[in-house]
């Protein structure tokens, strides 16, 4: 979920910025640097920050050092350098021996509705730069220079990010993005932030199944008949599969349930709107097996208003439904055979 509105995102201003070098070998890679003026490069950094505005929602645990350190910066900008070094040191310690060398960045930003902190981890990427020099034939000759440390626009270079808003002493909203594993951000990153996920995979799985069924049924007139055939069973089977739900491509999940859709399909738009309404926008997760109860009954309705609901265990043995012939055959002892008397409508007083 994005913790910033469109107005906030468009109005972001960098007030303080710093980066420190982190890596698996502390003595060789770890370097603390002075804060720098990001204003000449604001467009580049703000574009990267906006790209991670929507992520998985988290909350701080009560004794989170990160919350305390950001709170000190929030109270006094003079503490920015000192607290950033503490954050970088803690991040490098949690980083682990197999992590890539890169830069740990901290930004203190202002937006129309208050202050926001951005913590970013960029992995170093090797870039082969080239230039020109006079050639022996009169044509320019290329020159090459390998650059090992850089900030690049490649979205995969920005591996991990957290956007944090503090609300008073105890409240905060946190959005976390992990490019390597969007569904389950790295445990060391969660440990460093000292946070826990706001929504469990069980809750997210249940909500996704429920809202998907709601959207499909709302658009049943414009969808092929097969889209609704055995919908509940297909949703249940998908929930048991452990499939990943990608917040950046929510339509991929929808098409696995009802088939291909055009990119501009109103069904996709309704689906995205429902995800946003349920406060699931930005949430990537693996569907949790067992979160959704198995269907117990089968429901069949005809164009003339005939409705039959029967236990799934009787399907085929006691009740046979032939959709091609439009036949329903029930082989069972009849215990009730009567008409239903409708209750009269209450007279208005």
Kindly describe this structure:
This protein is α+β, with helices and mostly antiparallel strands. Helices cover 29% and strands 27% of the residues. It has ten helices and 15 strands. It has helices at 6-10, 26-29, 42-51, 65-75, 80-95, 187-193, 201-218, 231-240, 251-258, 266-277; strands at residues 13-22, 56-60, 102-111, 114-123, 127-134, 140-147, 158-167, 171-178, 195-197, 244-245, 285-286, 297-301, 307-311, 319-322, 327-330. A seven-stranded antiparallel sheet has the order 1-3-4-7-8-2-9, with helices on both faces. The chain has a two-stranded antiparallel ribbon with strand order 5-6. It is elongated and about 90 Å long. 26% of the residues are buried.
How many strands in all?
15
Name the helicity range.
25-40%
Order of helices and strands: HEHHEHHEEEEEEHEHHEHHEEEEE
User: Strand arrangement, largest sheet?
Assistant: 1-3-4-7-8-2-9
Which overall shape is indicated by the principal axes computed on the Cα atoms?
elongated
Uncertain runs with pLDDT below 50, 5 residues or more? none
Q: How far apart lie the N and C ends?
A: 49 Å
The total of helices stands at 10
The gyration radius over C-alpha positions equals 28 Å
Structural class: alpha+beta
pLDDT averaged residue by residue: 86
Largest sheet: 7 strands, antiparallel
Relative strand content: 25-35%
């Amino acid at each position: 979920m994005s913790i910033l509105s469109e107005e906030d995102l468009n109005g972001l201003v960098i007030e303080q910025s710093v980066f420190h070098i982190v890596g698996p070998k502390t003595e060789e890679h770890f370097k603390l640097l002075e804060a720098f003026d990001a204003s000449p490069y604001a467009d580049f950094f703000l574009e990267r920050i906006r790209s991670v505005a929507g992520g998985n929602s988290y909350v701080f645990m009560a004794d989170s050092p990160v919350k305390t350190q950001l709170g000190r910066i929030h109270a006094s900008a003079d503490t920015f350098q000192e607290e950033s070094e503490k954050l970088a040191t803690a991040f490098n310690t949690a980083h682990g021996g197999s992590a890539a060398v890169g830069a740990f960045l901290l930004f203190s930003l202002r937006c129309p509705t208050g202050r926001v902190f951005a913590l970013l981890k960029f992995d170093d990427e090797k870039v082969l730069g080239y230039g020109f020099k006079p050639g022996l034939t009169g044509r320019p000759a290329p020159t090459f220079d390998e650059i090992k440390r850089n900030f690049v626009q490649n979205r995969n270079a920005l591996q991990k990010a957290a956007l944090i808003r503090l609300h008073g002493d105890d409240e905060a909203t946190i959005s976390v993005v992990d490019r390597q594993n969007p569904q389950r951000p790295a445990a060391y990153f969660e440990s460093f932030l000292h946070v826990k996920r706001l929504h469990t995979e069980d809750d997210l799985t249940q909500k996704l199944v429920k809202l998907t069924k709601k959207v499909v049924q709302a658009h049943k007139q414009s969808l092929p008949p097969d889209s609704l055939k055995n919908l509940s069973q297909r949703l249940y089977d998908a929930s048991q599969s452990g499939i990943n739900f990608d917040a950046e491509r929510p339509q991929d999940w929808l098409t696995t349930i009802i088939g291909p859709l055009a990119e501009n399909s109103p069904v996709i738009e309704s689906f995205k709107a429902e995800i946003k309404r349920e406060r699931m926008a930005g949430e990537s997760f693996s569907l949790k097996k067992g979160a959704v109860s198995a269907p117990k009954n089968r429901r069949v309705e005809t164009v003339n208003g005939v409705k039959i609901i029967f236990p799934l265990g009787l399907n085929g043995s006691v009740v046979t439904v032939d959709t091609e012939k439009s036949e329903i055959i029930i082989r069972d002892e009849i215990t009730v055979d009567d008409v239903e008397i409708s209750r009269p409508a209450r007279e208005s007083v």
